[in-house]
Amino acid sequence: MKKFTFLLAAILFVSALSSASAQVRRTQAEPSRTVVLKANVLSPFVLTASGFVEVAFAPHMSAQLGAFTTGASYKDVKFSGHGFTPEVRYYLSETKEAPKGAYVAGYGRILDYKLTVDDEEEGKTYEASYKPIGAGVAIGNQWIFNSGIAVDLFMGLGVNGGSLKVKSGTKDDFDLGFLNLVGSGVRFRPGLTVGYSF
């Protein structure tokens, strides 16, 4: 619950800053709809809540901050955690301004996981932490309709790395294949977000 509260507070804080930035741009006769709030609609399928705030700061450039919180299990490994994804996007269209149209992006990943394994035979619980960081590139397209509804479809490819820190038990108690899925090594980053722009 604390992680969810922290995530919500971070998103609201960035949203407030973004709204203020958009107001300044509007008073300078800049195009409207420079801020987009959105959620990844694929995240619930992996028991994750994921949201983003994007702010266009130049005709072809925007900055985005993503945040997520998760709690799921894989085989006998239970994990919970949160993470952040800062991103800079360059929009390619000559006829549309950011944040509309096709784009290429560079992003970073900062992840923090807590892992537990219940050994029913021994009657013990093993714990570990895993905090990988990484970076990658993405391509995508964002549609913003007259109603303000925004749809963003993207695919990224990145590399994450970090070390497992075991608090109790041994590394053999944790499925490293699982860690490759959520954190380390080369990782695909697909996404489909829906939100509102203003």
TrEMBL record:
Signal sequence, renumbered to the chain: 1-22
Name of protein: DUF3575 domain-containing protein
Pfam families linked: DUF3575
Biological source species: Pontibacter chinhatensis
Family matches, as InterPro entries: DUF3575
Keywords attached to this entry: Signal
Keyword Signal: yes
Superkingdom: Bacteria
